[in-house]
Amino acid sequence: MFYNQRHWGGFSVRERDVPEARKFVENPDLPSPEMMTKLLNLYFTFVHPFAPVIVWSKFLKRLQTKNYSPSFLFLLNSLFAVSSRFSDDVSLRTDPTKPETLGVHFVEKAKAILDTIYDSPDIHCVGGLILLSYQQMGTGGGYRAWMFIGLAIRMAQHLGLNRDCVKLNPNMPILDREERNRVWWTCFVADRIISATFGRPQGINEHDVDATYPEGIDEENIQLEYRIDSTAPMLTGPSPRSEKNFVYMASLTKIMGRVMLSLYSPMSKASSRSNSSMTNPAPLEQLDKELTEWLLQLPPHLQFRSVQQEPGTFVCTLHMTFYATLILLHRPYSHQSSHSTHDWSISLSICTSAANNTIEMASNLMTTSDDNRDVPRLKRLLHSAVFILFTAGLIHITNCTSLDPVLAASAKLRTVETLRCLSVIEDVWITGKWCGVNIKNLLKSRNIELPCSVEG
Q1: What is the pLDDT of residue 334?
Q2: Are the CB atoms for 307 and 361 separated by under 8 Å?
């Protein structure tokens, strides 16, 4: 395979030479310094731990010098669009009476800029597309999310972000390498999460990737706080640990991708029409081993022992993603079959335990408040929480019809709790409402009656 300078950011149409793109530089139309600071702080708190598409020192210099290229403005507007979802500020809505319109103005601005920079992709463009796909994923724009992440993957591969930076250019500055690795693995995680959510093909072939994980490095003695304007509040950069923690999410979604490819792709043995496909437990044993090793290698600060410890939202999301992957792995093996040599009850027990743990974590986040405002911490999760809760909910619905009365009764109570959690999340991500409706329809189709009201 042939790689040259264009694979690390050259030989494309200069965005500043495109008249349509230049107008955005001449008139950035950014929010007030105060609003920018609020939205950036929301990003660094709730989004950056899962989507570290910037390096703080490089980002800060852009802000300080107001070096706003079209692609950087695209990144900013995409960032504002997704961070707006965590704000209660009515002024961020295009319709003050509709919470679902939060940040729509930034989405439209980002899309307008994107239309002018297709031919000049750079790392900011890739990062902006990832953030825009996350925003669309949770607000009902599933098709656009799917298209945006696909475009991000193609641009990233065009720039060679999937490759080991040292092999591409041994003289590449270390912070440029760090930025490329952060953006690539954020793209990878988004691809795996969105593909699993939709049940669609993955856009990245793992065999095409030799990029190294980000190391969480930045300039020494870089200031961690900054005021965009003398009257604006303090802008605080990302947590020092956030990028290193993110590596564990990236490695987990690697395994998730292998699960989806091995068990759910059209040509996989587990999804074959032939029941004999389930007689080969090799994918189950190997992938279960990988998940166990991943869990055992977590550093102490990312381990989860009890909800009473009130772990942070990143730790909860990380472990909820682990449980969702565990369910996806064991669910095809959790049904009794005369053609299977695997003990189906073991897989069902694992799925049940994972689903129970997921709802226990989510319930705890629903009943505890955010540190700064009286808002349930469950509302501070990214859109992937909807997919995770729905995955757990499907296991509870299956158990509602169990011949074991204790298991069935417990599953019904947990189904109620799942619906309550989704009803809380829908205030931020409208897809939570849709998944709740799907669960209710499944219950109705199976004539399952819940013991109490979801609103109770």
Answers
A1: 87
A2: yes
- Indicate the helix (H) or strand (E) that contains 235: strand 235-236
The SS3 of residue 369 is: strand
* Res 307: pLDDT: 60
Q: How far apart are CA 79 and CA 238, in angstroms?
A: 14
First-residue to last-residue Cα distance in the chain:
60
Segments of the chain with pLDDT less than 70: 1-18, 269-282, 307-311, 336-342, 371-373, 453-456
Q: For residues 199-229, b (16+ Cβ closer than 10 Å) or e, as one string?
A: eeebbbeeeebebbbbebebeeeeeeebebe
Burial (CB < 10 A; 0-12, 13-18, 19+), residue 415, is: buried
Q: Give the pair of three-digit tokens for residue 116.
A: 């002018």
Residues 6+ apart with CB under 8 A from 182: 52, 53, 54, 55, 214, 243, 246
Give me 254's structure tokens. 């690697």
Number of other residues whose CB lies within 10 A of the CB of residue 296: 8
**pLDDT computed for residue 2 by the predictor:** 42
Which residues make Cβ contacts (< 8 Å) with residue 70, sequence separation at least 6? 15, 16, 18, 21, 22, 24, 25, 113, 116, 117, 120
User: Structure tokens of 58?
Assistant: 């490089």
CA dist., res. 33 & res. 53, Å (int): 21
Token duo for residue 354: 């994972």
- Placement of tokens 């019809």 in the chain: 401
Question: Cβ(172)–Cβ(161) under 8 Å?
Answer: no
Query: Please, are residues 113 and 87 in contact by the beta-carbon 8 Å criterion?
Result: no
pLDDT tens track for 367-409: 888 766 678 999 999 999 999 999 999 999 999 999 999 999 9
Residue 455, C-beta contacts closer than 8 angstroms, at least 6 positions apart? 423
Q: Report the pLDDT value the prediction gives residue 339, as an integer from 0 to 100.
A: 53
CA dihedral 228, 233, 234, 236 (to 10 degrees): -90
3-state secondary structure (DSSP) of residue 52: coil
Cα gap 209→156, rounded to integer Å: 11
Alpha-carbon span 321 to 382, nearest angstrom? 12
Structure tokens at 277: 């496909």
Give the list of residues 6+ apart from residue 133 with CB closer than 8 angstroms, or none. 144, 145, 146, 148, 149, 152, 190, 194
If you search the block for the tokens 């980000």, which residue do you land on? 214
Q: What is the pLDDT of residue 57?
A: 92
pLDDT in tens, 207-223: 999 999 999 998 877 77
